[in-house]
Amino acid sequence: MKRHLDLILIFACLCVFLFFPYFKSFYNKLVPLESEGKPVVQEVMRMAQPLGPYTKHFKKKTRQVEGERKHHMVPYLWFEPARPYPENLKFPLVLVLHGASGRMNGVQYLITKQMRVSYPAFILAPMFSQGSIWAAPHLTGVYQEQNLPTVVQMVKDLMQEHPIDPKRIYVMGCSDGGTGAFGAANYYPDVFSAAVSHIGTWIPMKAPDMTKVPIWAFHGGKDEVFPYQRTKAVIDAIRQNGGEAHFSYFEDMGHSCNGKFLYPEELWIWMFKQQKDE
Q: How many helices (H) and strands (E) does the chain have?
């Protein structure tokens, strides 16, 4: 009998450990705080180390972002160019969108010593609770909460506080984050100067609205989550509508964002040269 009770207790502890982040996220959504008459949703990080061992190089911050119906308390990672800043010089901002697990890929290549010299930039990596997504095409019937409007407002707020060049704001992401990068190009062409999608997806029907932001998509031939044919069809449709779109295909790769070959030097040269017209 005692052994059965011990097993039950161990099982209960495991359940609490595994599912507490989801319960906490649900509770915060269900019982929000209040600010200026609007509910305040406390977003919860999906994992403690979103950038793996490189997380330590970023400042961990939280800020309240105002929305039309509610506000969000958003935890985020923040990286700055080396100080002091030359007078009147403004830097690019790279927005990094995590995947469904909360993991952010490729950021380690942006903070190497060489990159910080060649392409000094602010890096913003916001984090949102389970159960929400970055973006989805309006025609797909996806009704999950979409975080891209909150993040865009966050970018605009940060531009008022830091020497960020509004002509050089870039977005990149993996998997769900890659889909968010497509969404950023689709819905916010006035904000973003380039989008990089790793194993993300979108729909070709939206291509006519996606010609103002250059896009580079990376995808694997063995991806069973987001089949590469769908992403390639989007890229082809953007080209057919007069937009700049690149597609890098890796026949033996599945649904993965790991590997330096996915973040070649050519990608950074291309991305950082993109800028909005005056």
A: 6, 12
